[in-house]
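Hi R.,

As promised, here are both runs. First protein below:
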Amino acid sequence: MTAPDAAPGPVLGLRERKKARTRAEIQRHAMRLFRSHGYEATTVEQIAAAAEVSPSTFFRYFPTKEDVVVRDDYDRLLLEAFRAESKDLSPLQATRAALRHLAEMFAGLTPEELALEQDRAVLQLAVPEIRARSMDEFLRIFGVFAEVVAERVGSQPDALPVRAFVGALLGVVLGAYLPTGGGGDWPTTEASFLPLGPELVRRMDEALALLEAGLPL
């Protein structure tokens, strides 16, 4: 994926851009192999060979095989955009504004990049090991976002109002993102997911607008 280089936030230096390209290349080859051979049948060694890196380089970018599916730059870019928003905005208003910047980036993704993201979304629910790792990543994101929200409002990340806000925020976004279905038997086909792009971000923003209005039912 190359789009993150063009997203709002600090301009990346040469070293960081090279690392971003290497990470994207590893992920691109991994997803291609997963689609061709299946997730379980694909090894880290095969991914590294396809991306023309060593297995040790793979693990520098992705600590586990599951991380090559779970990890991306979007949360970091969203947090950078959130930090850059006017301090006059409430945390929820700043989140919605940052999300609109992300929508602009998604609009610039190529069909190949969109297909890769769609594959990642499906695998995160279809493969138990990846689903478990996704929960670890969700908890990490919760902590990081609590820090930036606390920074904006002059509080502490472990303050109950901050944690309650971040929990509500992430829950609403997750509800807009997850495919239609119910219980523990989530649909795990591409057709079950709203395609990544401006339309998905619009749906997330609509959900955040409901949160801002007090979640009227």
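And here is the second one, sequence first, then its structure tokens:
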Amino acid sequence: METQKIHYTAGGNPSHAGVFILKNGQDIEYIVIDHVEWKEKEKINGADKSVFVAFFKPNPYTKLPMVLNKVNKERLLKAAKLGSFDLLTLKDFPVRLTFEPTQVGDGLRISKLPAKIPATPVKQKPAITEENFDKAVEFLKTKTMEELRGFYEVPEEMEKRLTSRYNG
């Protein structure tokens, strides 16, 4: 059984994303920054600081925002091809997150490498509903349930109704 590696900072109740969000220390190859905000009094490790904070779109890695230190701000501006005063205009920008040792400990960094855009997700099939039920019945007069499933998601309850309708 493979042991999962978890960074020691994962304990407690963190308020911001850190290196601990990297599963087994591996890069997050694709995560999208929804937007960046300037926070006058952001509580970081018990102290109020004025910082830029990146907020991510919903993702499987973290719900926490990320404080943008000097290195991460510079990398983000360079990757997004933005000027120094344009950080707050950044929207919907994909990045890669990585681990780098720093002078004060392990750091979560915006990678110098570009985000690796995931393969195009399979398009979700529409479900059989009351609105298209009669069309599905017509389809099943000449085709099979498996062929119908090629075009539609067939919820279990709808399958029972369809089966009783075209068999009965």
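A quick note on the second one: The radius of gyration is 24 Å. Let me know what you think.

Best,
J.
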